[in-house]
Write a structure and sequence with these properties.
The chain has 4 helices and no strands. By secondary structure, the chain is an all-alpha fold. The longest helix is centred in the first third of the chain and has 37 residues.
């Protein structure tokens, strides 16, 4: 009887480990939804851009701005080096805030 109780309690886990798993899953879901929203918005923007009649100079300006944004994102990752979860969280929340039109 005692061995059964031990095996049941060890399977159920401690409250703190259950909370950790729940928080991890919640964070993973939030990040996944943010990435999905960001991809959807990006595809929508690209579709709209492709419909515009732009000069070569305007197209180059868009490419240059995209390259600048990419470089700035790399800098964010470098600043948060050593903590990829923090970097991912920062980018995910920034993307979500931007998509929702919220200010920092």
């Amino acid at each position: 009887m005692t061995s059964r109780r031990r095996s049941r309690s060890s399977r159920s886990g401690t409250p703190s480990s259950t909370l950790t798993v729940t928080l991890t899953l919640t964070l993973t879901l939030a990040v996944t939804l943010t990435v999905a929203l960001t991809l959807t918005l990006t595809l929508t923007r690209y579709t709209k851009l492709n419909l515009l009649e732009l000069t070569d100079a305007q197209k180059q300006a868009i490419v240059d701005e995209g390259n600048l944004v990419f470089a700035l994102n790399i800098e964010v990752f470098e600043e948060l080096e050593g903590n990829p979860v923090q970097a991912l969280w920062t980018l995910a929340t920034a993307s979500l805030r931007s998509a929702l039109g919220l200010k920092d």
